[in-house]
Design a protein that fits this description.
Helix content is about 0%, strand content about 55%. It is built from no helices and 11 strands. The protein has strands at about 5, 10, 20-25, 35-40, 45-50, 60, 70-75, 80-85, 90-100, 105-110, 110-115. Strands 2, 4, 5, 6, 9, 10 and 11 form a 7-stranded mixed sheet that branches. A hairpin with a 6-residue loop joins strand 4 and strand 5. It is globular and about 40 Å long. The termini are far apart.
Amino acid sequence: QVQLVESGGGLVQPGGSLRLSCAASGFTFSRYSMNWYRQTPGKERELVATITTSGANTNYADSVKGRFTISRDNAKMTVYLEMNSLKPEDTAVYYCNAHWASLKLNYWGQGTQVTVSS
């Protein structure tokens, strides 16, 4: 049974930090690129960060470059999103995604709420 379980969300003040985790099970984690998306009500889901299977390459949305860092531990089957200098506009539900492009496989977590507010 495929599972992606996010954790680490919560309420934080502007300028603060959070670290999201996504624990995977039920599939060969190391063969999937991993992504973090976020979504606010009434808007499309936005790709925030992506990391390749080995972790050698990462990409970020312009809105989070220099503030967010994606990483993965294939031995622990976990992907992380370190979020620093948080802004109110970072408020969203954050989703973990596993993607294998050539096989067109996509798995999603249930999401974790991040709220940035004073």
